[in-house]
Amino acid sequence: MKNKLSMETLASLCKRRGFIFQSSEIYGGINGFWDYGPLGCELKRNVREAWWKNIVQHRENIVGLDASIIMHPKVWEASGHVGGFADPMVDCKSCKKRYKGDNLCEEQGKKLIKTEKGFALPEGIKCTSCGSKDLTEPRSFNLMFKTFVGPVEDESAIAYLRPETAQGIFAQFGNVLATSRQKVPFGIAQIGKAFRNEINPRNYTFRSREFEQMELEFFVKPGSDQQWHDYWVEERMKWYQSIGLPAESLNKYVYKKEELAHYASACVDIMYDFPFGMQELEGIAARGDFDLGRHQQFSGKSMEYFNQETNERFVPHVVEPSAGVDRIVLALLCNAYCEEWIGKEDQVMPAEPGKQPPEGFEARTVMRFHPKIAPVKVAVFPLLKNKPELMEKARGVFDTLQKWFPSFWDVSGAIGRRYRRQDEIGTPFCVTIDFDTLTNNTVTIRERDSMKQERIEIAKLTEKIHETLA
Ligand code: GAP
Question: How confident is the model at residue 2 (pLDDT cuts 50, 70, 90)?
Fold first, then answer.
């Protein structure tokens, strides 16, 4: 049984061990922006790679794209972001706290009211900070970051940092189709940064102003939308489990008809049970021909697909699984975090919050990442650092392993302390080189979760670690 994790505890480990830092911390930080440290960027890379392999490299009918972040401003007019990508902003007139209107209402068990002109607050909504009911009416606030292209800062030079990666895919639909020889159904995938000037960034990295998306636009024949939507929801649920998120921590939120955008025929959010509640990791929407249709209308360029076998011509419909890398990393960190008490014989019991371990037990914090996702796969320890023959032998083992896996070299402190340091960053294997190694070329390999140790030949180490990662 795991104890409920506090986000402060997780953030403290992430900072201490180099997963996540506050952006520009030396200047007091900047709200909604985060930096990934040495271990965090490895973890993030592993998430991206697992997604790219699963979505692009292991499928014949999906290809990749890496579009620019700043695009022609017409892209955002066509997509509807200039006109409608806005959140309802509410201010407390007493304490000046600013809220995203829909969140403020949801926290109080109510729903923001949609009106003809915009939004209104339901009766009784209070400021959660000071309790005042003296709140402004919700005002629309466009979330796109604006900038200028070129030296003159006038209206004609306005451009936007993309608020999603998807539009780069729609805008290049024709070029990709013409050059990749794909036939509908096929997909275009992209991973990249997105920017939203969120009113109220919160829950650590969960809602940030700069984040990364992994989006797939899967183009299908009109009429097959539902079938492909069902397919992608199941595929994506399986993927989350393949990177170590247990089925019981995941959930699907199926949108009701009245909650769907006017052009969408279905939408499902994949949710994870974060310490701050069940929240969205990814949305999977069947968006019809809205996006390609709008770009066809605004650019005057045809977005039609011609099926030579059937002589049919149509604008494909799209199914869009759209995931956030940072949210997945946060879910993996929350899921991996575990505090336990372990005895001399490696007996394990869950740690009791705020209490010291009983006599004969010590506390360990262990990040139980799936080995595929763990930032470091193996650590190598020479038993004693003042024995040159042990150091030399261990260095040889380390050099071999490092060619295959992100590896860690540690010579300082007792072996037990070195294990604890690796447990805390989630390294699945630790390898110790001792005096027996010098005579029989075997090492001790210790597994993170079970803490079981086994003696194996150096020649078999790489294969053993590869097996676990596969
Ligand atoms: N193209 C569709 C789209 O962008 P979205 O639901 O707005 O849909 C997709 O975003 C995913 O991007 C979300 O499920 C979430 O994982 C991630 N995301 C969105 N806004 C975010 C933010 N402010 N901070 C971190 N991740 C965010």
Answer: low
